[in-house]
Amino acid sequence: MQMTDLPPAAVLFAGALLLPLFKGKWRFAVALALPLLALADSWAVITEGGASFIPFMGMTLQPVHVHAATPVFATIFCIMLAGGVLFSMNDDRRVELTAAFVYAGGALGVAFAGDLVTMFVFWEVMTLGSTIIIWSGRQNDSYGAGLRYFGMHALGGVALLMGIIIVVTQRLHEGAADPLAFGHFSAMVDGWSHLGWDNAGMWLILVGMLVNAGAPPFSSWIPDAYPEGSTSGTVFLSAFTTKTAVFTLLVAFAGVEVLIYLGVYMAIYGVVYGVNANNMRRLLCYSLVNQVGFMLIGIGVGTKLSIDGAAAHAFAHIVYKALLLMATGSVLAMTGKFRLGELGGLYRTMPVTMWCLIIGGLSISGFPLTSGFTSKSMVVQAIVDESSRMAALGEPHTYLIVTWFLFQAATAGVFLDACVKLTWFIFFQKDSGLRPPDPPWNMKAAMIAFAFICILLGVFPGILYQILPYQGEAAEYAKVVYSLEHVMVMLGMLGFSGLAFFLLLPILKRGSYIHLDIDWIWRRFIPRFWKEVLLPLLQQLDNAQKAILESLPGRGMRDANLPPPIARRMGNMWAVSVPVFLIVLMLLVYLVVYFVIPTL
Amino acid sequence: MSDEPKTPGTSNRVLIAWLVGAAVLVAIVAVDYTVHHHAHFAADGIDVDAMPEFFPVFGLVCGFVLVLISKTLSIALKRKDTFYADD
């Protein structure tokens, strides 16, 4: 059997099965070797342009297919897993490590998926793996957060599956040669700006992908769930779900304008909520949403350079976000504290962690000589280029100008937030009296390796540019990326945004607060509405039903074994009135929707 | 990174950090003045970004505005971090 016959994801799934068989150092040796083997296998497949076909219900599955964006995503998924394994070596979390391999295997499977069914299956595998990682976190709210996370992704998965079924059915009716093909949507993108209900399948697929990307209104699952992972679990979590969503959007929906608007919202949302965050890892989760917003903008602009920018930024982001979460995870592991207000003065005893956090913070801000600068600036340039092109054609493009300014504003904001604020509150400000040492060697090694990659890609961007989807455009851009003007734009903006932080420091003091988000609707409003409004109402109906039944003539009815009160736990017998009431309610809603939206 | 820590007088290190931060910002302003910035959206008659020192001012203003928006929202949305745990 040749290397190219082996699907790269299979290497990681095999790892998940094998790892429990090993103990101690051997387990970590195997765990470190497998991502590297998967990386080698990925590149063997990419080099061969490998494609395998499996007959499936009269159609064809393509479990191993190389998309233009596959090399960059497959590479970083494998590197990320190896880095995460190294970081987690001192913490013996067997279930979490196995789940991480399943999770990363799912992500790698999606990166090589050539058809919608394969993509969906791996997509769901990721949901399972990641939920187990959250549950393995053993934090206060890990169980609840994992349940909410699973519910959210199950919802997204259902939307995705429904969309796939509709699209495939439509394609079969149209007699398409390859009805399951994943990656052919771009041919249909022209009509996206005025997408109608007849494209419902596409919309549902888009929604399914956007849920995983953390797009509004579902951005809050990221800061809700990820901080509940363990120190290493959150590092794994930050890398795969959102970036796999970015990959699928990039393959299927490049150039879809709505992604620009969603991306701008996410970029600003991440900063605004991040400024208020007190939990250091939650702050980074908000900035994760901010950065995925930048990627969505790149995908939405849809030019070759912007797609390159989005892919490069996903690569760079996985590295520096993991680095930031490793550094904050180290602080958490060594101090047991996660609130910024309880930290301070750690620069004395955690210098390695501090410098790694600073390098990660500079990278996320797009500071020159870091990976964020060489990746994010591609998207910025692409917005300008596309705006100029549309201006020359006389097409409306004001939204691109507005996007550019907001993009830059969010960049300034994320420096203030995820770099200056985080560094200041953890390592400086008042002396908390804590004197923890830097973390164990493996955690330091993982951080230093990822910090090195941040700088390497900042100084030698060509390394990353040569595996991007459109290498020609990237090579052209490499010639101008370090123009003095580019550099001064960033230095001016970031430097003075940092000044704003210190000028506003008196109002940035931390308290033990959270800030309500849209998830308040399903975490508080719906449960309370059920408990305080709907349930009493149903109890009244139940009583009324009993009263009616008892007033009916005939002993048989009166002696009937009536169901117990509705307030009992689910699983007990329920009165018929409840389902009848709910069905009538649903029919009523349907009727209203039918008349309000006659096109349905 | 830049600028003034708010624990003045605790040590020379704080003063040095303050001075280095200020020097870096002054250097940025000085160099930026000498760099020619082209207008990104000249075709649309927007040339504000070609003005000298536009980006330092933009960074400062954005920092202020985003923090103030954030703090304003915070007034309405702030809850104790045991808010959901109380359920």
Give a description of the structure.
The complex is a heterodimer of chains A (600) and B (87). Chain A has 22 helices and three strands. Chain A has 600 residues and is mainly α. Chain A has three domains: 1-253; 255-509, no CATH class; 520-596, no CATH class. Chain A has a two-stranded antiparallel sheet. In chain A, helix 5 packs antiparallel against helix 9, helix 7 packs antiparallel against helix 9 and helix 10 (258-276) runs antiparallel to helix 11 (280-301). Chain B has one domain. Chain B is built from two helices and one strand. The radius of gyration of chain B is 20 Å and the shape is flat. The termini of chain B are far apart. The relative contact order of chain B is 0.08.
Instruction: Describe the sheet with the most strands of chain B.
Output: none
Structural class of chain B: mainly alpha
Strand proportion of chain A? under 5%
Low-confidence stretches of chain A: none
What's the order of the H and E elements of chain A? Answer: HHEEHHHHHHHHHHHHHHHHHEHHH
Number-wise, the strands of chain A total 3
Assign an overall shape of chain A.
globular
Number of domain modules of chain A: 3
> Which strand order do you get reading across the main beta sheet of chain A?
1-2
Largest interface: A-B, 63 and 50 residues
Oligomer: heterodimer
Order of helices and strands of chain B: HHE
Annotation field: number of helices of chain B = 2
**What fraction of the residues of chain B are assigned to beta strands by DSSP?**
under 5%
Q: Helical element count of chain A? A: 22
**Average predicted local confidence, pLDDT of chain A:** 89
Radius of gyration of chain B: 20 Å
Helix content of chain A: 55-70%
Any idea how many domains of chain B?
1
Overall geometry of chain B: flat
